[in-house]
């Protein structure tokens, strides 16, 4: 039996159960890739592999000559010249591992999708109306891989790290893929969700999801500029609630994406907006019928919002250690997934 938020439905005649399990597994795999991507960024490993070899690249260097060739290729880019010139071959092998592992997981995601997808098609578990959207998710995953290589190329000729614009696009696309997988999987739950859902609930839910997605994108800019490495105080920033120097670049719009002070301030400000908005949603729902049925998601979402804010503050105050930083990034994606599940259940009420 399954509690289908909250109606109980038997799995006896539920041919889509394996499909849901598969989609949730894919979402978990995407989350793993996001985590490893965060570790790749924090170890400055993302530019260690300077070529894209979709097939042969799955095998790491196996001989000393192959390792030396990879290291020599890395020596040709600005990051080695200006940042990592102190590295020897053993140091290079460490950063190479993280980038290779990140790419290997991304490639494996394609197989984890295609093989079960083909099996489900053969078993006729997927209708045409479901198969095409699922194939669209596969294309979104492929696009995410292309974004990853596009991001890497930005740091191979002039920059000493990847472009923050491309990093934000790469992270946001991965998060959207995770959200879409969770949304589709939850939408396939048997039975109907219970509760009263109107246009206000749907609209306010989509706005919350948009705010979380915007915050993830802003976090990508913070990571791309290493903006979290500075101004490690809270609630004040550079000694003030609203610090000076946020509009020093010309034209002014560049500050939103290239000024580390401004980028970190924006990330903080969006967090405050999300906290206030989530609190208002919970308050409004509490006055309008409580949290029975589908709206039981709201208190859980509110708890994760507070946990995420606390984790973000701890990450900042501690100087962005890897464990806290990766946890902060992963929890942001999970928060987006929770909101997506809430939206899917509200759709199942109608």
Automatic annotation (TrEMBL):
Membrane topology: Multi-pass membrane protein
Pfam families: COX15-CtaA
Subcellular localization: Cell membrane; Membrane
Reaction it catalyzes: Fe(II)-heme o + 2 A + H2O = Fe(II)-heme a + 2 AH2
EC numbers, comma separated: 1.17.99.9
Required cofactor(s): heme b
TM stretches of this protein: 21-42, 104-122, 134-152, 164-185, 206-225, 265-285, 297-320, 326-344
PANTHER family named in the record: CYTOCHROME C OXIDASE ASSEMBLY PROTEIN COX15, CYTOCHROME C OXIDASE ASSEMBLY PROTEIN COX15 HOMOLOG
Record's function text: Catalyzes the conversion of heme O to heme A by two successive hydroxylations of the methyl group at C8. The first hydroxylation forms heme I, the second hydroxylation results in an unstable dihydroxymethyl group, which spontaneously dehydrates, resulting in the formyl group of heme A.
Family, per entry: Belongs to the COX15/CtaA family. Type 2 subfamily.
Subunit: Interacts with CtaB.
UniProt name for this protein: Heme A synthase
Native source species: Devosia honganensis
Source species taxonomy: Bacteria, Pseudomonadati, Pseudomonadota, Alphaproteobacteria, Hyphomicrobiales
Annotated gene: ctaA
């Amino acid at each position: 039996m399954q509690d289908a938020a909250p109606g109980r439905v038997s799995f006896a005649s539920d041919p889509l159960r394996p499909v849901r399990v598969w989609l949730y597994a894919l979402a978990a795999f995407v989350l793993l890739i996001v985590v490893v991507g965060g570790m790749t960024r924090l170890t400055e490993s993302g530019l260690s592999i300077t070529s894209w070899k979709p097939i042969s690249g799955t095998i790491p260097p196996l001989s000393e000559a192959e390792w030396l060739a990879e290291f020599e290729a890395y020596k040709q880019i600005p990051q080695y010249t200006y940042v990592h010139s102190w590295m020897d071959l053993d140091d290079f092998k460490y950063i190479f591992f993280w980038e290779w592992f990140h790419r290997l997981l991304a490639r494996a995601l394609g197989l984890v999708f295609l093989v079960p997808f083909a099996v489900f098609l053969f078993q006729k578990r997927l209708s045409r109306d479901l198969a095409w959207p699922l194939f669209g998710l596969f294309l979104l995953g492929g696009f995410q891989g292309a974004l990853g290589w596009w991001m890497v190329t930005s740091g191979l000729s002039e920059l000493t790290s990847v472009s923050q614009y491309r990093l934000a696009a790469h992270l946001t696309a991965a998060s959207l893929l995770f959200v879409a997988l969770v949304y589709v999987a939850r939408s396939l739950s048997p039975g109907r969700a219970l509760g009263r859902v109107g246009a206000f609930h749907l609209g306010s839910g989509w706005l919350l999801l948009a705010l979380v997605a915007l915050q993830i994108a802003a976090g990508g800019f913070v990571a791309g500029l290493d903006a979290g490495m500075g101004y490690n105080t809270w609630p004040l920033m550079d000694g003030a609630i609203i610090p000076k120097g946020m509009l020093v670049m010309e034209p002014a719009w560049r500050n939103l994406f290239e000024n580390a002070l401004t980028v970190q301030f924006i990330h903080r400000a969006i967090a405050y907006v999300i906290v206030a908005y989530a609190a208002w949603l919970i308050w409004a729902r509490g006055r309008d019928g409580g949290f029975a049925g589908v709206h039981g998601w709201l208190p859980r979402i509110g708890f994760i919002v507070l946990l995420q804010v606390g984790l973000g503050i701890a990450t900042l105050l501690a100087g962005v250690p890897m464990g806290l930083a990766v946890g902060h990034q992963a929890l942001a994606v999970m928060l987006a997934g929770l909101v997506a599940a809430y939206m899917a259940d509200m759709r199942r009420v109608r």
